[in-house]
Amino acid sequence: MNAFIRVLRSMLRGLAFAGVAPLVLAAPASATTIERVVSPGGIEAWLVHEPAVPLIAIDFAFVGGAVQDPVGKAGTANLVASLLDEGAGDIDSKTFHERLERNAIELAFQAERDTLRGSLRTLSDNRDEAFEDLRLALTAPRFDPDDIDIIRAQLLSTLRRASTSPTEMANLRWWQTAFPAHPYGHPVAGTLESVSAITAGDLEGYTRHVLARANLKVAVVGDIDADAVKTMLDRIFGALPAQPELAPVADVAPQGLGRRIVVKLDVPQAVVTFGGPGIARKDPDFMAAYVVNNILGGGSFSSRLYQEVREKRGLAYSVYDLSLIHI
Asked: Model pTM?
């Protein structure tokens, strides 16, 4: 994966470990040109025009994420992300998915703590319908009661499984310890109680308050030029509200530093989660730290942590570190 895609990962994610899906680019990394594009409506995007591959990839993120969940309704953003492609406008869920499948369009949404992200992958020949499907999903989600019940049941099933998973338990305990009494300490997926309490009105309110043009970040890679991107941006995102209505989120530093918390389980493996203060994006050393993080343990099989702990010593099945940042 070339350097540009790694930069796009950083640009689009509230967490640096989530990345843009790899694309096969004909030009070498040194020849990549990143172009800033602004639509007539004032929507900004970053473009890599690559006509050699008949594909278009769009990644975007709305600043907001799970920290904007209503009080007592943790998991709202996650439920919204799970429902945005379950029908839109006058198209029901079954028909909407058939449209996507018929045209080999990949549309996905994901909630994280600081962002609600989306991605679109399409063949160049099918871009018009792909852009329209994305527009509908963002501006006219249906949130039909039957779809809410089905997706809610799936998420509750996942939460029940997670409640006995050492990995999930360690992750949850770390966030709760590091950020007590702060939205960061709430699970993105919610709890059995909170997800059960979310209503259609909560979902509609979340999209109305968070999905807006001013808190939108967009990156585009593939067989589409700048003029077409300008048209596309206004077509897909132009009908969204100009400004979001975000609840203020207090700045916070991780708490409980130096603590060692042990949760005893009768399982043959151990999971260790650890963390501390990171580096701000505005810091002049941010990009250097981002590169160092990838070398040390950025989720790659070639990272030093992976090579030393797993490959050479066989001490763990997996080991990695994550650089948590604000978008």
From this structure: 0.85
